[in-house]
Fold this protein.
Amino acid sequence: MKQHNMIKLFSFLLGSVCWSGFIGTQPIAQAETTQYLETVKTEYQYAAKVTCSLLLPHQDGSLAKGTYRTAVNIHNPTNKKITLVAKVALATQFGSEPGSFDVTPFKGIVLQPDGAVGINCFDIAGYFCPIDGICVDFAFLEGFLVIKSPVPLDVVSVYTARHNAGEVESIEVETIQPRKVEESIKLGPTKPTKPGEGKRMDYPPKDSSAYHDQKPKQMCGGIATLPCPEGMKCVDDPSDNCDPANGGADCAGICVK
């Protein structure tokens, strides 16, 4: 009888230890699970071409020397609120090896019934800040804004170009046609950088022919609120046509010491 009671006691203690171990490991297993903010089921995809001079007029030879800008307008023609997602696919040199920043993560946008949103060059550049703790400063950005939606949209791109100084000299408007691509997109939590945090890289590199003998600027502010490195501050760029004192609330600036 005494031996039987000892066996029962040992079994009880062993079970308690195992159960306690299971409870103790549960939070660790949960912490390792990727958390997503939302899953968006999409059926339509739009690929809008983007061509953006950001820090300097474009001058590396692939396009005529000048300043290029793109604005993509998106309209929700339905009578219900929707969530769409967008990413940027960077156009790299043909035959080059895939890089860490060729395609950005998706960002979600909520559109009200009959609502519209505009995405400009500085918003598009903001998709590259941060990616894995690194922000990219573009002298020139070329690629596609890829939009995915659960419903058909009105997507129109506006392209402008001019010489290095002066007013707009060329404008083109293009309606982007959809293609049927069903996909569920998982949106992860966004982690915006604070001033002085994270690393920065130049694209193209500072020794590229894209700069010639001009010193590349580092963009900051704008609607994407890009930060400056520690020890520098963001001021208005006097070389552009955007004046924050005259209605240019979303003007991009340059970092200075």
In short: The longest strand covers residues 38-53. The two ends are 85 Å apart (CA to CA).
